[in-house]
Amino acid sequence: AQSVAQPEDQVNVAEGNPLTVKCTYSVSGNPYLFWYVQYPNRGLQFLLKYITGDNLVKGSYGFEAEFNKSQTSFHLKKPSALVSDSALYFCAVRGWGGGNKLTFGTGTQLKVEL
Amino acid sequence: NAGVTQTPKFQVLKTGQSMTLQCAQDMNHNSMYWYRQDPGMGLRLIYYSASEGTTDKGEVPNGYNVSRLNKREFSLRLESAAPSQTSVYFCASSETDGTGELFFGEGSRLTVL
What we know:
The complex is a heterodimer of chains A (114) and B (113). Chain A is mainly beta. Chain A is 0% helix and 53% strand. In chain A, a hairpin with a 4-residue loop joins strand 8 and strand 9 (73-78). The termini of chain A are far apart. The model of chain A has no long low-confidence stretch (mean pLDDT 93). In chain B, the strands form two sheets. In chain B, strands 2, 4, 5, 6, 9, 10 and 11 form a seven-stranded mixed β-sheet that branches. A four-stranded antiparallel β-sheet of chain B has the order 1-3-8-7, with no helix packed on it. Chain B is mostly beta strands and 113 residues long. Chain B is globular. The mean pLDDT of chain B is 93.
């Protein structure tokens, strides 16, 4: 069975500082990895994905994520946080051969303060 | 381009009542999904439809039924609502190949008293 762990319920960071939201996964075969963001009372929005190729993936709004196969991690990063980045972030994984079933983590609330 | 549209946005039911959540997408996607979101539990897959005419159970299918009416529409039915089904429900769609991202609706907040 595939699974995702987001070990931090909440991450606090000052505006202008770098941010990291952690994600580790467990899946059979090669993983397809995704990050989504959810603003209050809205649906989830796609940020970025790793399918194959370069381990550093760049996505929307200046976010990037690094795929680390040996550590089974896919941490979300941004060099300089904005107050508007405050939201709920979800990591998700789909295993090869797992069809279209995407498994989500429990989410990490990011709070960026002035 | 509306994307994924869900109705209703809010609903309050009494225990034992039935209702149907409607979902439609205009992106010509083959696959559609129903998730529920509960605090501290992330999103859990209820049912999905890989293509028109097929449906499969997800992680938490008990108490729900689905219908893939056509390529655009995928409905979720609660036959006899229970308080444990109080949740926010999200419909999503994607391309079939497994590498495509999901596009989500705005959600339907359901309260069962």
